[in-house]
Amino acid sequence: MSYPAYSALLGVCETDKPQWLSTAIDSTLRQTVKPSEIIVIQNGSLTDELAETINRYKEENPELFIIQPLPSRTGLGATIRKGIEACSNGFVAYIDANGYSVPTRIEEEFEALLANKADIVGTNINEFSESIDKVTDYRTFPETPEEIYKFAKKKMPMAFSSVLFKKRRIQACRDYEDCGIAEDYALLIDILYFRAKSYNIQKPLVYERHSKDNKFLCTKENAEAMRYFNTKYFKKGWFRRRDYFFRSTMNELALMMPRFVRNFVYSKVL
Predict the structure, then answer these.
(1) Class for domain 6-209, per CATH?
(2) Considering the entire predicted model, what is its pTM?
(3) What is the pLDDT along the chain (270 residues), one digit of tens a residue?
(4) Sign of CA dihedral 217, 121, 193, 149
(5) I need a labelling partner for 61 at 20 to 30 A (CA). Which of 29, 82, 256, 260 fits?
């Protein structure tokens, strides 16, 4: 079966590791349905090692890799905006620079997208710390558009690191505002707000890397970002009053929680 051409969109920042980036890129190159282009957004200044890694792939595949620099580091929204502008195809797969995609990820996502006439498709994910052979956690998401929309009223409804989407549906969003630690959630809400049809494949086709010791950073900046995010989408009418107060209370309590408890709360509750 033939599938539409698609662009693989990859954002890289200075905190990423060269070996992790290589894993993400190699898994993209090994897809059974290969991208016609890989858009690499350099999110601010990079380490010499990261720059060398990107340049090596560019030299090996000069027509495949397109490098787009951002002058200073910014959030996911700006990365998506810049990346979409550079994508020449109508379909875009987001690639996490710290992750790994199983070889059939894109093929299965296209099958699901076409069969369900969806605008955006994601998958369940496995989480790991060091090696994909040692899964530390497993995250599931609702399957159907109705379930996803309802679920998104309370919690993150998809793993953005796993999505394949129609470019025009993302462009229909009014803005790609930086909401700090909640920026991927905010972007998905904006997509669903415009009634994009979504679907989640009920098996893990993507592995996300997480540090088990510092999975959810509890900083002043992140706390302020969560307050802003909760308030913004409550005023917008997305969160109901009780969900807004529940989320806000849990976010504030997380500031005082031990790390392992906070990790559980953000993984399973929020």
Answers:
(1) alpha beta
(2) 0.87
(3) 789 999 999 999 999 999 999 999 999 999 999 999 999 999 989 999 999 999 999 999 999 999 999 888 887 777 888 889 899 999 999 999 999 999 999 999 999 999 999 999 999 999 998 888 899 889 999 999 999 999 998 888 999 999 999 998 888 775 666 666 678 888 899 888 888 999 999 999 999 997 654 444 556 677 777 888 888 888 988 888 888 888 787 776 766 555 555 555 555 554
(4) negative
(5) 82
Q: State the number of CA atoms in the 13 A half-sphere of 55 facing the CB.
A: 7
Domain spans of the chain, in order of start: 6-209, 220-269
Q: How many angstroms separate the CA atoms of 214 and 229, rounded?
A: 22
Beta-strand relationship, 198-209 and 135-139: unpaired
Tokens representing 41 are: 């957004």
